[in-house]
Amino acid sequence: MKHAIQEMLADPAEDNSPDIGASSLTLKVHPWRSSLYEELHNRPSPIIHGNCQVAHFTLLLNDNREALHEHVVDLCKRFCVPAPGPDSSCLYQDFGGFELRWERHLEFSNFTFICPDVEPFSADALNFIPKDWLASLPGELVVAVQMAVIDQPPTEQQRHRWLEGQRASGAQVADGRAEVWTAFKLHNDGFGRIITCNNELTPYQMGRLVQRLFELETYRLMSLMALPVARKLGGELSRIEDGLARLNESISDIEADKDERTLLQELSMLAADVEGHRSNTNFRFSAAVAYHDLVRDRLDQLRETPINGVQSLREFLERRLTPGIKTCNSVRDRLEDLSRRIHRTTSMLRTRVDLSIQEQNQSLLASMDRRSHLQLRLQQTVEGLSVVAIGYYILSLLEIGFDGLKAAGIESINSDLLKGVALPLVLGTVYLGVHSLRKCITKDTDKLDAEALKKPAE
């Protein structure tokens, strides 16, 4: 996908399509306009004249896109024919003894060789192609199929010989104007084989039929690329499901914070495994669904008419291909369901942890409340002691004052009597003063706390 986007973004930069001009109007053309027009005419069907043999190869694209292009350029140089440009995604060229149709898609690349006037499934079909060039095709081969295009319906003996005795599926296609036979299996030469009989189709219609049959073969195999992945993933998902079930049972037996932290860690590991599998398989499973849709679309375009006593192409593919695709969809849905279940379990465990934390906070607040009561009592005790201490010091100061008055010559002053009279007044005044000061401080503190609580709410 990344390479396709880069190619798409690169093409408009090289688009030199002229602006639309008229005597009274000039319009600036979007840089993608020409490429969008040409997109509808990309990969046209071949034109098939008479009997021929067609060989079709499909190779996966990964890091070999440039190597495949250079390989095609090398073949063109050998035969002195025009080579495709670096950004080209297709090449249709007559090489003399054969016609090459090269197409580069997002995930794979197709090579189709059309060899006229060759006996069905003869080894001479690929003799015109350099064997060293063909053997060094870069990439992994997925599809290799040969098609014999004939103009007379094959006899039962011919079908038996050409398909090597394998059970064949067949049908009349294109509203009965052609016949198709295939075993959907590999033969002794490593190729799949298709027999196509042209009854009333024009060369252009025959070319479209050949293209649809090759697309059907390519897309059905590409759709099944997800099946080994699904089978391999099934056992891993069973392990994750068992681990999740065990964790769900353990949640009800939690007795300590340590257990909660351990379960959260195990859940995180399961979630990481599931997300890793999702990221690794999401494209493959989505591609399988897309390719399967293309298979069904190509079957509709064939417009089959069943042949009595013979299994049709649609019947075979619906019986054999659809279960594999459903298996892939089942594993993908299972993976998504596991992700949701782990998320719910994690949320439930986090809720339990939050409740545990709240209980701890309540216990802490209760303990703080008890401490505040003890501090209040201690404060009241200290306050009483403070009144006595302050009163004692004030009376001592008064005694010093009375002694000073005596020394000044006022002999009538009885300091002991005056201190006894002043004692309740001094203690009462000190008590009222300390009480008033504490009340003022408490009022200011309550006001500040109320403002602090008000700000977060706002």
How is the topology of this model organized?
Elements: H1 2-13, E1 20-21, E2 26-27, H2 33-39, E3 52-60, H3 65-79, E4 90-94, E5 99-104, E6 108-116, H4 131-135, E7 141-150, H5 156-162, E8 169-173, E9 178-186, E10 192-198, H6 203-223, H7 226-251, H8 257-302, E11 305-306, H9 313-407, H10 415-457
Parallel strand pairs: 7-10
Antiparallel strand pairs: 1-2, 3-6, 3-7, 4-5, 5-6, 8-9, 8-11, 9-10
Helix pairs in contact: 6-8, 7-8, 7-9, 8-9, 9-10
Tell me the radius of gyration.
46 Å
Described by the principal axes of the CA atoms, the overall outline is rod-shaped
Spatial ordering of strands, largest sheet = 4-5-6-3-7-10-9-8-11
Number of beta-strand segments: 11
Number of H/I helices: 10
Summarize the helix and strand pattern as letters: HEEHEHEEEHEHEEEHHHEHH
Largest sheet: 9 strands, mixed
Can you give the mean pLDDT?
83
Q: Please state the structural category.
A: alpha+beta
Which stretches are low in confidence, meaning pLDDT under 50 for 5 or more residues running? 1-15
Our measurement of the CA-to-CA distance between the termini, rounded to an integer number of angstroms, reads 49 Å
Relative helix content: 55-70%
Question: In percent terms, what proportion of residues is strand?
Answer: 5-15%
